[in-house]
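Q: What would this complex look like in 3D?
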Amino acid sequence: MKILLVFLYLVAPIAISADSFEILRNDVEGFAKVVPGKLFDFPADHGPHFDYRIEWWYLTANLKDQQGNQWGIQWTLFRNALSAKSSESGWSSNQLWMAHAAISAPDGHSFEQRFARGGIGQAGVNLDNQFEAWIDDWVWRSDGKSLFPAQLKFRIADRQVDMRLSSNADWVLHDDKGYSQKSEQGQASYYYSQPKIEIVGTINGQPLSGSAWLDREWSSQPLAQNQRGWDWFSLHLSDGNKLMLYRLRHEDGNHWLSGSWVDANGNLTPLSNDDIRLSEKNTRSIKIDDETEITLPLDWLIELPEMNRQFIVKPLYDQQWMETSFPYWEGVVLVEDESGMRVGEGYMELTGYQPP
Amino acid sequence: MQPSSVLVLKAVFSHYWRHGWQTLFLLVGLIAGVGLWSAVQIINQQARLSYEQADSLLGVQASYWIHSRTGKAIEVDDYIHLRRAGFRQIFPVVEAEVSTQQGQPISIIATDLFALPNNLLDSGEGDTASDWLSFVQPPYRAWVPRQLAEELELQPEDQLLLRDGRRFPPALIKSHSQQGRQVLMDIAAAFALLNRETFSYLVVGNIEADQLSQLESLLPDRLELIENQQHLDLQELTQSLHTHLSAMSLLSFAVGLFIVFNAVRFSLWYRRPTFMNLRLMGASSSLLLSAVLIETLLWSFVGAGAGIVVGLQIGKVLLPGLGASLHSLYDATVDTQLIWQFDTLLKAWGITLLGLLWALTWPLYQQLKRNSLPANLISRASLDERQSRHYLALSSLALIGVSIFLYPRIDDAISGFLLLGLLLFGAAWLLPTLLAFTLRLVSHLTADRQLIARWLIGDGWAQLPALRTAMMALLLAMTANLGVGTLVDSFRSAFVGWLEVRQSADIYLRSSKIDYDRLLDPQDSSTWLADSHRRIGVTSRWQGRQTLIRGVDTGAPDSLKLPLAQWSGITPEATLKQWQSEENTLLANEQVHYLAGLQLGETIQLQTDKGLIDYRVIGFFYDYGNPNFQFYLPYDEVVNYWTQYHSRGIALWLKKNDEATQLLAEKAMREAGAETGDWILQSQVRKLSLNIFERTFTITAAMNALTMIVAAIALLASLLAILQERLPQFAQWRALGVRSREQMMIIACPILIFVLVAWLLAIPLGAVLSWILIHKLNIVSFGWSMPMRWDMLPAIQLGGVILLVVAATLMLASWQLRRRMPNALAQLGELA
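A: Here is my prediction, written as structure tokens for the whole assembly.
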């Protein structure tokens, strides 16, 4: 759910300005279009789709150490085509790779952002013999052509993350069999996930384990003109159910809501505007740097009236801000029911909020 | 009743309103002196700032370089291997020199902006998204610094045409930090332009000690890690050059000060009646002194402020040339965007104030001492004049004595320039005595002649005090002009002669991909190749300086004619033969002799891969423009003792230097693996070398010319002041029936005599100056010598120029005289 992020990076690497939105509205002529009815083909679709403008491999994980402390990691690799005419290899490649990673540790949040040009082997996604997604020394390498089982290794400052990922569950194709509509004007992406990943490994030698969530998404079409940001949730519920939902914020307050409910047996129920009620419970200010503070809706109430379910979502701690080229909040959240009992955990992403 | 301070100030300052010329000249002197001085200060400061940044590249910390041990380029795979091992502080660089159709060399620097360790998003100022996108995407963009674009007359989107027909990507007129005069482009663009797929080197940014040892163990044998010491090297290498510039700027400042001295002296002289009246009205001498000091302070503000503005402009004009020279000579990247520093203004103000106070002290002392004496202008002046001439002559002898004492003790550029300063000022202060002596001599010779001749001499005595300072300034400027001119001419002729011998081959080929056996195969090459010389080298450090140990073919045509500055054998030829035949002998460049103190016949130890080996130095060869040490050893010796040598290219002599043979050579080179741009023809090498040479001396020539202009202004200022001062006298002459032409002749003749004496003195003095510059300063500063080439022609030309200046000045003076005469005559009537 990082479309806007990627686009903004692409068009405004130096400064985010009003002008960058202008380019967002520019044509996507020449790129492949996202249309309904695509039949997904695995493992081929785990690899890059160079005909499309943007794409990502996006993993979040909720972890616990042996003392029961909550941890979280985020690792995302983005692919961007700078022009429609695909040129994949060599120095003249038009592919640009970007990666974000973050660790939410008991002692605080740390993150890093990386860039690399495509075509020269410094970054990419490869399916030749085994699945491999990498940028410099950050690497996700599977044992075979599928995404799992796999090893994920990355380092942020002096923290080395070394994780083993495994999953046997079915892929979740969101919305209309993986065709995920983003607006009434027809903006859309191909979007599938694996919400049931077992993750075990170490951070600087300290053993950790938990549940991870992978999102795969690609598209060519920018967001609609009136969409300015989004709020996105991926939740692992204690009863084995999984919930993904997002809200694309519209200027007129008439937001676009969508989501997926995956029960413990893997059955998918797509959720649309009418099925979701999402409300901000509390806003708080966090520090971006020494001088700037930003106010964000950090506590949420999620209601699924059809399913008769209510969840309160709160961050593990407030300071999980990603001060990257396009800054956003992304981090570990805890889920409670209406009585205040812990019923799950997950990740939340809040984008498009501006400091005063 | 004592007049109020305000009234005193008003009365003292009113002089400048009434005498516009005086004000103008005082300003010109101050501004010219401060301007030239501060221009060089600003340039030096800028260069030094850039050296300090030499431990970074394109704004990124560069702690180490990774080079190929064999001088080959670095493969992309090696780089990717290091990145994937987690060394994200490593980024690739391609550097290349190409030349435009007009033969102007252009340096290209290319990198992968996405790979720079610090976030590229933070490094650009005012960069827009489209700038970056166009930078990395075909057809790419060449970021050309504004100054270079102006020189090349490049407009945005123009594609610069190169000598071999290739074209740059469309130009974007802008600079990245530390780009200097280089053209920045994306690596992909450089690969396409240069038809290559390898890097020149890799840069290692900030790296921790444990990472460094990891990196060392990971590097393949063919690559080596070199610590970046450029920052220290550059400071050391360029020290002398900056001292030279500073010395020239101080000379300009001194010449400017002469004008100021003159102007201040006259301004005090004119205000004598004012001062006297004020004293009579009850103003204390300390009040008058304070008024003059306030005036001085005001002038120092105006002079320093305006001088800095002029200095910035001059700096802007001169910096790109100097930047280009520093880049070609020392590989130093100097930003062409001037950085303004407040302390330059403070320093400028400080020296202006000091200069003004110095110019003021003596005249003011005289003024105050005389305040109550009757105004008997000429006799009193002549008495003072004789006295001060004597003081000056005595000081002059002292200065010359000190400089003779210093001469054998010079061991660096600063002491060298101190000596030159002492000598120049010694000579300048002797000039008034010489002028007086000449007048006396002429008067002696014309003793029995007619009245008019005696009058001429008499008027000379009257003019001497006023013209003295201007003549000293003129002498200094002429001496500097001749001395530096001779230095540059000597260097040019030595350099051109040296180039002819050193670069005698028709084609120079350098590429890492050449199959030499194929190129030199006698069967194929017999149609075009007369001779060849393949060279190899090992770079190392010797006595703390970068050193190249070259393996050369001792029998190659250029080796047989190697120009030696010193040799141990009977003749240079015999020494070269000895080098060819005798084991463990080497030739070193002159720099080794002068900068490291190595003597002929001494033995040095070189660290080889097989241990320390002794070599005896049997000759020193000229190696102009090289800031580093070089040793020449036979080719086989280097191959034998150093395993990691790299190719330094091959020189090819053609059977016939015509187009057909050149085409054959080109075909053979291509077949051996060379690509366009790998070779360069002798004529182009020479053109490039001479371009660099000329550019290096542009700043010298400019400073010289500016100093000359300042001296001419000094002369004009003095003459106009004399006219002003002596107007009542001239009116009396006119009243006595002297015609204006006669009058001009009487004024002009002494001036011409004075100028002639100054010119005659400037010739030997200029020769001495150039002798010291060439035989002392150049050697201690740069470590190379050259024969001095003295030519009378520039001296005669200079004489002509000075005559023109005098003629113009006299014409202006005569026009002024005619304009003012009626008024002066009227005043004469009133006085009568």
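A: To summarize the key features: Residues 63-227 of chain B form one domain. Residues 121-125, 372-376 of chain B have pLDDT under 50 and may be disordered.
Q: Very helpful, thank you.
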